[in-house]
Design goal:
This protein has about 290 residues and is an alpha/beta fold. Helix content is about 35%, strand content about 20%. It is built from nine helices and twelve strands. It has a six-stranded mixed sheet with strand order 2-1-3-5-6-4. It has a six-stranded parallel sheet with strand order 9-8-7-10-11-12, with helices on both faces. Strand 8, helix 6 and strand 9 form a beta-alpha-beta unit. Helix 1 packs across helix 8, helix 4 crosses helix 5 and helix 4 crosses helix 8. The longest helix has 16 residues. The radius of gyration is 19 Å and the shape is globular. About 45% of the residues are buried. The mean pLDDT is about 95. The structure holds 2'-monophosphoadenosine-5'-diphosphate. 2'-monophosphoadenosine-5'-diphosphate binds next to helix 5.
Length: about 290
C-alpha cells in the first residue's frame, strides 16, 4: 500500500448532473483530460432528480464546485438558476456547461461546438446543401442551429411528434432565415433528397440497437453523408445501412469528445491545441473500442 496524494486539500471538483447518469462517459473523458494537463482536479457524476435541480445547483455553488456538465433531462431547466447565459446557449435554449464565477454559475452550450468540430474534422460541409435532421430533442436542436449557421440551403426536420419539430423550426427561425420544413418521420422518403442526413433520435442505441429511424433504405441512395449522434454502438444500423448505400458515415464519438474538450477549455480559460485534442480523442477511442468504455 502507498500514500495516495493525487487529490489533496487544493483539489478542484468538477462534475456532471443528470438522471440517469450511470451510463455517462463524461467522467472518464474529463478525468483523462485533467490528468493529461496535470490539473489538480477531479470530475464526478451526480444523479439529480428534477425536483432537486434548484437546490442541487445552489448547493454545488455553495461548496465551490468549479464546473459542471448538465445532461438529460436538465439542460433547459437549469437555465433558471444561472447568473448568465452565453449567446449560443440562449439561441439553442439549452445549457450543458456551467462555469463557476463570483456571481454564480454561467451557462454555455458545448454540444453545438462539439458537433461543429466533428463536422470540421470529418470534412462535412453543409453550406448551400440540403440537410435532414431526424428528431426534435436536444441533439436535434444543436444540429438544426448549426446547419443554419453553416448556411445550409434547406433544413428538413423529420420527427415522430410533429409539434416538437414545429417548435424547433420556430426557435431556429427566430435567428436564421433558412428555409426549414417540418415532416412526419413516416414521410421521410417522400421529400426531396437531402445531401446530408443526421440522426438525432435515440433509435439505434442501447436495447434497440438493431433498429433505425429509417425504414426504407432507398432514402440513402445518392446522399453524401449520414451522421448519427449515437456512439454506442459504434456503428448503428442507421450508419451501416447508409454505408451500404455509399454514404460517408460518421458517428457521435467526435462530437462527444469535442464537447467535453470545449467544456474543459471554458472551465480553465485555456485552449487545447488540435494536436492535443487529437491525442486525447485517439486514446479514448482506443479505450472505448476495446470495450472498456461500454
Ligand atoms: P436528446 O436530448 O438526446 O435529443 P430527447 O430530447 O429525449 O433526447 O429527444 C429524443 C428524440 O428521439 C425525439 O425527437 C424523439 O421523438 P419524439 O419527439 O416524438 O418523442 C425521438 N425518438 C425517441 N424514440 C423514438 C422512436 N422509437 N421512434 C422515433 N423517434 C423516436
Amino acid at each position: 500500500m502507498e500514500v495516495f496524494d493525487i487529490y489533496n486539500g487544493k483539489t478542484d471538483v468538477y462534475g456532471i448532473i443528470g438522471n440517469p447518469i450511470g451510463h455517462s462517459f463524461s467522467p472518464v473523458l474529463q478525468n483523462t483530460i485533467l490528468r493529461r494537463f496535470n490539473k489538480n482536479g477531479i470530475y464526478v457524476p451526480f444523479k439529480v432528480e428534477g425536483g432537486d435541480l434548484k437546490k442541487s445547483v445552489e448547493g454545488m455553488y455553495a461548496i465551490g464546485i468549479k464546473g459542471l456538465n448538465v445532461t438529460v433531462p436538465h439542460k433547459r431547466a437549469v437555465m433558471n438558476f444561472l447568473c448568465g447565459i452565453d449567446n449560443t446557449a440562449n439561441k439553442i435554449g439549452a445549457v450543458n456547461t456551467l462555469k463557476y464565477t463570483e456571481n454564480g454559475y454561467e451557462g454555455y452550450n458545448t454540444d453545438i461546438l462539439g458537433l461543429k468540430k466533428s463536422f470540421e474534422i470529418n470534412c462535412i460541409d453543409v453550406s448551400g446543401k440540403r440537410a435532414m435532421v431526424i428528431g426534435a430533442g436536444g441533439a436535434a436542436n444543436s444540429a438544426v442551429m448549426l446547419f443554419a449557421e453553416m448556411g445550409a440551403a434547406k433544413i428538413v426536420i423529420a420527427n415522430r411528434t410533429i409539434e416538437k419539430a414545429e417548435a424547433l423550426k420556430k426557435q431556429a427561425e427566430m435567428f436564421y432565415s433558412t428555409d426549414i420544413e417540418v415532416i412526419s418521420i413516416n414521410d421521410i422518403n417522400n421529400c426531396e433528397k437531402p445531401n446530408i442526413i443526421l440522426n438525432a433520435t435515440s433509435v439505434g442505441m442501447g436495447e434497440g440497437n438493431n433498429q433505425s429511424p429509417i425504414s426504407d433504405n432507398s432514402l440513402f441512395v445518392g446522399v453524401e453523408c449520414a451522421f448519427d449522434v449515437i456512439y454506442t454502438p459504434w456503428e448503428t444500423k442507421f450508419l451501416k445501412d447508409a454505408k451500404a448505400c455509399g454514404c460517408t458515415a460518421v458517428n457521435g464519438f467526435d462530437m462527444l469528445i469535442y464537447q467535453g474538450i470545449a467544456s474543459y477549455e471554458i472551465w480553465h480559460d485555456t485552449k487545447v491545441s488540435n494536436f492535443e485534442a487529437k491525442e486525447i480523442r485517439n486514446m479514448l477511442a482506443e479505450y472505448f473500442n476495446n470495450g472498456s468504455g461500454r
